[in-house]
Hints:
With 469 residues, the protein is of the alpha+beta class. It folds into two domains: 6-301, ADP-ribosylation/Crystallin J1 (ADP-ribosylglycohydrolase fold), CATH 1.10.4080; 310-466, Nucleoside Triphosphate Pyrophosphohydrolase. 45% of the residues lie in helices and 11% in strands. The chain has 19 helices and nine strands. It has helices at residues 6-24, 56-71, 76-89, 103-115, 137-141, 146-158, 164-181, 186-189, 201-207, 210-213, 225-238, 242-250, 256-271, 278-282, 287-301, 364-376, 418-424, 442-447, 454-466; strands at 310-318, 323-329, 340-341, 344-346, 387-393, 396-398, 403-405, 407-415, 434-441. Strands 4-1-8-5 form a four-stranded mixed beta sheet, with helices on both faces. Strands 3-2-9 form a three-stranded antiparallel beta sheet. A two-stranded antiparallel sheet has the order 6-7. Helix 11 runs antiparallel to helix 12.
Amino acid sequence: MQNIFTKDRFLGSLLGLAVGDALGAPIEFEKRDSYIPVTNYRAGGPFDLKVGQWTDDTSLALCIGSSLLEKKSFDALDIIKRFHQWFREGYMSCTGNCFDIGNTTKAALLRFEEHSDLYSGAPTDPATNGSIMRLAPIPLFYFHNVEKTLFYAGESSRITHAPIECIDACRVLALFIHRALHGYSKSDILKYKKEDMLVCSSIEEILLGSYQKKSRDEISAKGLATTCLEAALWSFYQTDNFNDGVLLAANLGEDSDTTAAVFGQLAGAFYGVKNITPHFLEGLWDKKLIETMGNDLYKKVNPYFYEGVNPTVDLIIINPLNEILLIKRSLTSEACPGMMAFPGGFIDSSALEGSFWIDGLENPKSAALRELKEETNLKLESFVELQLVGEFEGNNRDPRDNSISWSKTHAFFYRIGDKTYLSQKDFIRGMDDADEAKWIPITEAQQMNLAFDHNSILEKALVLAQTFK
Ligand SMILES: [Mg+2]
């Protein structure tokens, strides 16, 4: 399995879109092979852009991404308002104004000005590629749910692009990006079974592999949703790395920025940001803005990822005698030698690699149970319902020198039943980095100087415990 972290795939998808857009922009509308082939960013083109600047594809993707993050769900009205703000005021534009707008998008936004419809696309409009080019934030935001990914990909199209080909092209690209984000192989990403999704006939032809048999001359880059999807998949299929693929896509000419942006969303998710050549990333206009949004979308789907902060767990066990389980840290331990603490430790960043919990970052509840076992030998069933006491920040104070190692702790408590307590009380011992594990009356524990911020966590746990007697 490739060792590409999911976070790299998130950043790759959003930055890949913008990189493709910016590489293709200077030759947009040019007849294929009528220009010096693109190998890097260049200034000029139909909009006289500076080196590394991007166009409507990226601006509109940023509109969708910012809306999803702020509204915390798909909100068609908010999205079209942002599109409109881009159209009239240059919101999310790298030049400060709207300079590159497709006819279908413009017609929809003019209709919105008149009628305020959330879905201003008309089924009779030409089936152009203006909705597929801005898609990436949807599969990123709905990472955990493939049905919602497909549904909202279609809805995001309908805001400005209502023809069925546009909607289906978005759904297909969203499915492929979803698979790429989840680490599928290239052949598994591109696999199509009729039961996966129902699509219109022109999109189905592509899914059945039309692009795999075509020569470059047979691939069109003229701005329709179907042919744009086909051209992007063709570039993805023909190459084995992001950089060759994005240049192949851009150099198809005509609607070069969008073909490369569609390729970039998918290929960036597949290869990950670390496999996008550094000069494409460093030369990208407003890279920080796009990177921050990619990070924010990633954090949204992985609430246990804290940048620059160690995620830790504590588990407070209360027995039927109203005693609490505490451990004494090993004298050779780095932190809090000799002090009593709850069973607890770090969320493992490698134990579950490739699992649902992205990049091997454990679910805090599983981590708490694992740490409990490793620290004390006490075994609870893995399905026990732990009660969350709260999240505590910056609580790793080292009493030797008062230094703080920044961490974010999820603290849980569990009231152990008579039977489990009696059958296991004799097996408790200090393990891992603990010298001792022992039950202490709660009232006594409250008087002790516990390690870290455990006194305040204990007080909160006891308040919570009242409701679970
Ligand atoms: Mg464009």
